[in-house]
Every structure is written in C-alpha cells, then in structure tokens.
Specification:
Helix content: under 10%
Structural class: mainly beta
Radius of gyration: 19 Å
Number of strands: 25
Distance between the termini: 5 Å
Shape: globular
Largest sheet: 13 strands, antiparallel
CATH class: Mainly Beta
CATH topology: AttH-like fold
Strand content: over 45%
Order of helices and strands: HEEEEEEEEEEEEEEEEEEEEEEEEE
CATH architecture: Beta Barrel
Number of domains: 1
CATH superfamily: AttH-like domain
Number of helices: 1
C-alpha cells in the first residue's frame, strides 16, 4: 500500500486509543518464501517477520451437522509497513496488526462482526504480554479481560475474543495431522513464481467453549468443528488479479477439502488450486487445470453494493460438489480499518446427489474493489 494509506491507518489507531502486540524476536526470520524451504514446527506456527503479509485464520460451525446453530470466524493479520526500519522506539510502526471476529446465528438469521487495529514495532512488549516466534501467540489489547488472543498449546489452539457485542472463548482441539498445502507447504498463487505463500491447514478441529451472543446475554456452552489456516507471503496477488474465491470444508466422514481461484477484473480465472485429504489418508494437491469453480445465484450487499455469488458448482479431483451459503448477509465491511470489504460465511458442501456432506467457510474478496494486500 502507499505510504499515505499506512499513515491514515495509524492516525485512526491514535484516535481510537488502540493497543496491541504480536510478540516475536526481530531479525529471527529473514527467509524468503521458497519451494526449497520445508516447514519446521513448532517454529512455523509463529510469526515470520521477513514476510510482508501473514495471517492466522480459524472458522467453524457450532451445533450438529444436521442443524448447525452458529458459524464463527476469527483472523489475526500482520502486515509489514516498510516504515521505520532505521528507527528505534516503542511506537515505530514497522508492522500493522489487525484482527477480525464474526459470529453468524442461523437461528436468528443475524451476522455480527468486530475488528481491531494497532501498530507494532516488531519487538517484544512486556506491557501487553510476551510470546516467541518459535510458536504461535497473538494478542491485541493490554487489559487481560478485553484482549483478543490466539495461542497454540501442545494439543490445541485457544481463542478468546471479547467484543462490545459478543464474545468467543473457544478451545480448538487437534484431531488430525497438519495438512501442508501445495508442494509440502509451498502454495503457488499465480503464474509468476513471486506469487506464492507458505501455507498449512489444521482441519477437523474439535471445538468446545462458550459463546455470548449479546452484551447482556447468557454465556452459552458450545461444541462444533473448526478449520485453521496459517499463511505468509511476500507477494500473493498477480497484478491482473483483483481477488479470490476460497473454500475450506470439513467433511462429515473426516475428510478435508480446499479449493480456490484468483480472478481477473472481467471475472475470468487467473489461477487456481486446492487439496483434498480423505480421513486417514495423504493430501492430494490440485493443479489449476484440474479445478473448476462456477458461480451461481448472487446476493447484493446493501452496504457496499458488491454482488457476491451465494452458490458455486465445484469440480475437482475429489469429485463434483455444490457450495451453498447458509445465510446471505455475511459480509465484513472493513473499509474503515484495512480498506476493503469481503464476504466470509458459513456454507454447506453438497455432493452430486444434493446430500449435505460437509460444512465450512466460503471466502470471497475483490467484489467491492481490488483487494489490497500490503
């Protein structure tokens, strides 16, 4: 992004009085995204300060496969600003940290979302807690009872996101091995070698915890299934790409399906890919020519005017499927923080006979304007 955009965001942070930190040791990760690099854990669960853009992203459903009651989404982003590299001090804005949280109630037909934004100098900040790049620990906010956190434990992830309207406190228990996307975690995102990321997923996470839907509402015990992605890159979008359509589905038989396409301005596909892993088996990656995603019915956002496809026909080496949103109004309007709006929502996966075989999330970007990625 242009320098004035970063300064505008930082001015907004000062006006809002925000604070936060993602704790890492500066200079510990200067490695380029490369097909020769093999992911190392637990180190690669942590932050990669040499990458321009990075995110940790969890989505899931609560209730039962037959009658899910809620969907949830939480994302922590880190973006290098390119500013202040020769300066020292606590408030030097070398990175922006921002986070999004959303809850969809299928019973109330309601979608709630919240967001936070802060600057970070790239060094440990004891005022907001401490964590290492050797593992994942993310935090926005100083006060323990109001901070948004995502941390990885030996057997699970723990997420706590209290907002002014709703609150999530969830344990995401690991039930399967990591799923390395692309070629052993190296995922191409375009025809040029520079458009690539390191990318892994954790599907079929067993969810337990609590949800508060309203400020004064009851604390509800919840259970469900989640999906977590961690991805970092120097450059994801090809100059011709305006955005992407992405699907991450937990199948009821224990399988996991990923599919994505990157679109040009005219809607044509620039690149695509994905993976499938049957329960207890090895993952299979998809090449761009092996994937077809065809949009169907559309919904127009009253807030942004963007027209998002609510139904998709998906063909890939795992079979033929339909993806269908369970609630149209699941757009996140983040134009006042990260400068873009996108659609992120709980959806169902149907097989060729129309039977529901999975639940997960559909993400669509670039429909309200070209997506900016740092």
């Amino acid at each position: 992004m242009q320098r004035r955009q970063w300064l505008r965001r930082l001015a907004g942070w000062v006006a809002a009085g925000g604070s936060g930190s993602l704790f890492a040791q500066p200079g510990s990760d200067d490695e380029e995204v490369s097909p020769q690099r093999r992911l190392r854990f637990p180190r690669d669960h942590g932050a990669h300060l040499g990458a321009r853009i990075e995110w940790w992203y969890a989505t899931g459903w609560l209730g039962t496969p037959e009658a899910p009651s809620h969907g949830f989404q939480l994302t922590f982003f880190r973006s290098g600003t390119g500013l202040g590299q020769q300066q020292s001090g606590r408030f030097v804005p070398r990175h922006l940290l921002f986070a999004h949280a959303a809850v969809t109630s299928l019973v109330e037909r309601r979608h709630q979302h919240a967001q936070r934004l802060t600057r970070w100098n790239g060094q440990a900040d004891a005022g907001a807690g401490v964590a290492s790049v050797q593992d994942a620990a993310l935090r926005l906010g100083h006060a323990a009872d109001r901070a948004w956190t995502l941390t990885r434990q030996a057997t699970h992830w723990q997420a706590r996101l209290p907002t002014s309207d709703f609150a999530l406190d969830l344990k995401l228990q690991r039930t399967q091995p990591l799923l390395l996307q692309g070629d052993q975690g190296y995922s191409r995102k375009g025809p040029d070698a520079g458009q690539a990321s390191h990318y892994y997923s954790e599907p079929q996470l067993a969810v337990s915890g609590s949800l508060r839907e309203q400020t004064s509402g009851p604390l509800l015990p919840v259970q469900g299934v989640a999906w977590l992605d961690h991805e970092w890159s120097q450059q994801i979008l090809h100059p011709q790409a305006v955005g992407w359509d992405w699907v991450g589905m937990n199948l009821f038989d224990g399988g996991a399906l990923t599919a994505f396409v990157l679109r040009r301005q005219d809607g044509s596909v620039l690149w695509g890919g994905g993976s499938f892993r049957a329960a207890g088996d090895k993952e299979r990656s998809f090449t761009p020519d092996a994937l077809r995603m065809r949009p169907g019915r559309r919904w127009m956002s009253p807030a942004t005017g963007a027209r998002y496809p609510m139904e998709w026909q998906l063909e890939c080496p795992a079979g033929r499927f339909s993806v269908r949103s369970l609630l149209d109004a699941q757009e996140l309007d983040s134009r006042q923080s990260i400068g873009t709006a996108y659609w992120e929502g709980l959806s169902e996966l149907l097989d060729s006979s129309g039977k529901r075989v999975g639940l997960g999330y559909l993400e669509m970007t670039g429909y309200s304007g070209r997506l900016q990625m740092g």
